[in-house]
Amino acid sequence: MLHAFAPHLGGLAPLPPGEQIARARWVDLYRPLDAQVRQVKALGIDVPTLEDMEEIEISNRLYREGDAIYMTAVLPGELPDGKPVAMPVTFILSPERLVTVRHHAPRPFTTFPTRAERSASGVGSPDRIFLGLMEEIVARLADILEGVGRVLDQTGALVFDSNANARDAELRAALLRIGGQSELMARVRLGLLSVERVLSFYTSWTEAHPDADRLRALAKSINRDVQALEVHADFLGTRLGMTVDATLGLINLQQNNTVRVLSVVAALFLPPTMIASIYGMNFDVMPELHWRYGYPMALAAMVLSALLIYLLARWKRWL
Q1: Minimal CA–CA distance to 237: which of 177, 191, 186?
Q2: Measured between alpha carbons, how far is 104 from 31 in angstroms, rounded to an integer?
Q3: Dihedral through CA 199, CA 205, CA 211, CA 213, nearest 10?
């Protein structure tokens, strides 16, 4: 899929149908077809494949080719089936236009065209569109971190509420929820790290730009936001670990309580079982077998021994 945008009234607007793609200031390739790749290549821009984008070597993610610089960041998003993933997105910045190549759907690529006019960078050049898009990506990562914080607040209220009698199933559900947020946090941390590297690389290539001072200032401002979010992500990571430990501890306590109750119940039947075992032996000389009240006395001894064990358990607060 190919989306092409051009500046319009201070923002970005899709190119009208039939308009030449060469007029676009931003070309967004989403899971591109071969024909769409050829369209972009006709503009003098080499489009990397998904295999190239997934290479982990720094030379394959941040490099210059002719007048264009290629920058690849790993961003959280969704596949067409709705599955959340973190996949690479390549930003190809040339003097004429910005080209983005992606094979999943990070939300900023959908929201930025409708909010470009409110960007601090503006849309006056491909560099400013790139920085505005990066600003939107960082804002989205911040929103995800806020969402993780809200889920942690709700889960913590369940786990740490001393008045709540959380059942084992609820604690297990909380543990699964925390695990999901931990995976989301990992994708956000990877996104922040790769965005920081992209911005640092971009800043090093702005020396010859006529608007270099302003562009560097904008890039450094976004980088400061990234660094602040990294600190916030560390804080949330600490909270995630603490909440996981507390949830596991409560699950263990509940399991220990269950085992303790079963142990006391088993102890209640030990003395009666011993008495029944003694009088169930087949020795010839057992005078108690001929007592008139032997059977009631044996029953009474069983009940009394079980009662004594019960009272002892209550006194020791085992029940």
Answers
A1: 186
A2: 7
A3: 70
What is the arithmetic mean of pLDDT over 183-202? Answer: 91
* pLDDT of residue 229 exceeding 80: yes
**Closest by CA position to 114, among listed 14, 29, 222, 193:** 14
Contact predicate 219/182, CB 8 Å: no
Distance (Å, whole) CA 156 – CA 164? 12
- State the Cα torsion 145-149-150-151 to the nearest 10°: 100
- Strand-pairing partners, residue 226, are none
Which domains are assigned to the chain? 2-253 (3.30.460.20), 257-316 (no CATH)
> Per-residue b/e over 93-125, b at no fewer than 16 CB within 10 Å?
bbebbbbbbbbbbbbbbeebbeebeebebbbeb
Each residue's pLDDT tens digit, 51-99: 888 887 777 788 888 888 999 999 999 999 989 999 999 999 998 899 9
Mean local confidence (pLDDT), 201-224: 83
Percent of the chain with pLDDT over 90: 29
**Residue 168 to residue 254: CA distance in whole angstroms:** 7
CA distance 121 to 139: 14
Spell out the residues 6+ positions from residue 53 whose beta carbon is closer than 8 angstroms to its own: 61, 72, 88, 89, 90, 101, 103
Q: Which stretch of DSSP H or E encloses residue 177?
A: helix 168-204
pTM exceeding 0.90? no
Residues 120-141 have pLDDT tens digits of 778 888 989 999 999 999 999 9
Q: Alpha-carbon distance 188 to 130, whole Å?
A: 20
